[in-house]
Amino acid sequence: MINEPTIILSGTDPDLPQNVPPGLARYTSMRDMAKGGSAVLRAGFDPITGRTVAVKMLLPEKRLDRREQRRILREARVTAQLQHPNTVPVYDIGSDSEQGIYFVMKRISGENLFEILKRIAQGDQDTIDAFPMQRRLDIVVGACQALAYAHARGVIHRDVKPENIWVGNFGEVILLDWGVAKVWGQADDNVPLNRSVLTTEETETQQLKTLTGGGQRPGTPLYMSPEQVSGSRGIDERSDIFSAGVTLYETLAIREPFRGADINETFDNIQNKEILPPSERSPDRNIPKLADEVVMKALQKRPGNRYQFMRDFIEAIQAIA
Q1: 64 and 77, same structural domain?
Q2: Which residues form the domain of 71?
Q3: pTM for this predicted structure
């Protein structure tokens, strides 16, 4: 868990520094926070504003990759334009002569929802007490509020999952990672997934530990809508509703609805398998029947049978007692 930095007098009183260097040289005390497959997130200090920030940039081996450059720049610009309480503020976007494209965000404290659910699955009583069902529902609603705002602005997230929902130490909920977002009006780069080209090594790198411990689970593929799996070019906000529905199911049942033995089986489950409602999957968690109805409607295979707008889905979640 990341703690909130303390405000100290020395960060508020000094005069503005002279001859501020350009690019990333402006930021001091840089240290790694997290690394992904193509980018690194670092914490740093901005002497101009006197605040600690988070800086995202490409890994050295990806800095000259045009596809990765476009992706991080899209993420930066989409995130910067989605100014909502459930998105992270972007302070700066630039290209450093040594580090390449980067963007600077508010540094937020807390942890992602997946880590919380994992501890609940492991029976950690402190986490169970801190995050009862109603609190977990509120977290999902917060992420969905960001999605509703994004949809109104013409943006589809396309990667909604607990790992991308940040839960702050002071009650804030932030939906992160807009790197694969689709902006209405752009060409849809969603293409059919050729399962045969997924090698064992690629499969393993795309998987994360299961909530229940032992084995592996698909990460992003587990939350794809049927139309994402099939490569439909008609992806719209109802795809995010499906992914949010998977997240809601997992948040209630502390189990993944579509997880198969491998990615191929998971994709088949998403497209074809009729799953048990959360209350039947996890009968010991006292999940109300209304929650079953809400989840199962969001997880309909056909987009036309789901909630048609994120606001309707939000209202349905909020009605769960």
Answers
A1: yes
A2: 9-106
A3: 0.84
